[in-house]
Amino acid sequence: MKNIKKFLLTMAMTMIFSVSAFAASGFEFLFQLAGGAGAAIPNKEAKDLHFGTGLSFDADISAQIGYMFQVKEGFGISVLGELGYAWDFYVGGYGDTSVSSNTSVGATKYSAKDGLNISLFYHSFKLGLLPKFNIGFGGRHGLAIGIGGGVKIPISGRFSTTSTFAVNDAATEEEVQSTLDINLKRKDITDLFSPSVIGYMKVTFDYYLFFTDNIAMNFGLYLGYDFGMKIKNLTLGGNGIGGGAFNLGLQLGFRFGPKA
Fold first, then answer.
1. Each residue's pLDDT tens digit in the chain (260 positions)?
2. Can you tell me the distance from the alpha carbon of 31 to that of 185, in angstroms, rounded to the nearest whole number?
3. Domain span holding position 146
4. Is residue 12, in this structure, part of any structural domain at all?
């Protein structure tokens, strides 16, 4: 987390001090919706337990607020704070958690293999910094490339597991499969995970279509990585089981601020 903070601070300071002119500088505000999907990547400790790459999904509603500094005609640098709501969903595990059944002579028998499936989702408050390079193409068109990150602070969520055991011809399904569902509040999250926040970094690419000199619609995509939380009580070699997630998604919103 310290490395993320140092990186963001360095980016912001470098951009500010590189500015040489402010002819079209001004306040900038964006409101947008975003969503995407990707891969949930287990850490080393999880891989040692045979966890494989899983799936991840994310969506958010956010506002970006800051200032655009005009460097020269057609090029500006924005320093934006980002805040909003984020929803994240992760699925991972190992083995096969399906259960087969066979009915013979009026009796049903159940069989399964060893497997574990873990799914988590969170509702989070999102807070970060997103500097952007703005390129104007003249007229109604513009492009922005952003590099930044921050933290997602989970407020609530859900933790679910499905476990199966290598048993053949069991009399009941409960003998071969076990499930657990826990609704999480903020205190549960701090008790269960360390750290209890999700760090994130992302790169964004936005196309701006201006309706006036200061109002535009933005269409974009993002590449992001989440530094996931580790489960405190599920450890290997003293390190918690966890991982991260790489996501690719689309974003759509409105921008209020000067052209580059």
1. 555 555 555 555 554 444 434 447 999 999 999 999 999 999 988 888 889 999 999 999 999 999 999 999 899 999 999 999 999 999 999 998 999 988 877 788 889 999 999 999 999 999 999 999 999 998 899 999 999 999 999 999 999 999 999 989 888 888 899 999 999 999 999 998 989 999 999 999 999 999 999 999 999 999 999 999 988 876 555 678 889 999 999 999 999 999 98
2. 28
3. 2-17+24-94+108-256
4. yes
| Whether the Cβ atoms of residue 215 and residue 253 lie closer than 8 Å to each other | no
The pair of structure tokens assigned to 67 is 């200032």
Give the contacts of 198 (CB within 8 A, at least 6 positions apart): 88, 122, 124, 151, 152, 153, 154, 226, 227, 228, 229
59 burial type by CB count under 10 A (0-12 exposed, 13-18 middle, 19+ buried): middle
Judge whether 101 lies within some domain: no
Q: Report cis status (omega within 30 of 0) of the bond before 195.
A: yes
Cβ neighbours around 14 below 10 Å, total = 11
Residue 139 burial (CB < 10 Å; 0-12/13-18/19+)? Answer: exposed
Report d(CA 154, CA 189) in Å as an integer.
8
Both structure tokens of 260: 């580059």
Kindly state whether residue 99 falls inside one of the protein's structural domains. Answer: no
Which residue matches tokens 């969903």?
89
User: Does 59 map to a domain?
Assistant: yes
pTM of the predicted protein model = 0.83
Please count the other Cβ atoms lying within 10 Å of the Cβ belonging to residue 196: 17
How many distinct structural domains can be found in the chain? 1
Give the span between the Cα atoms of 100 and 108, in whole angstroms: 10
239 sits in which H/E element: strand 239-241
d(CA 85, CA 106): 53
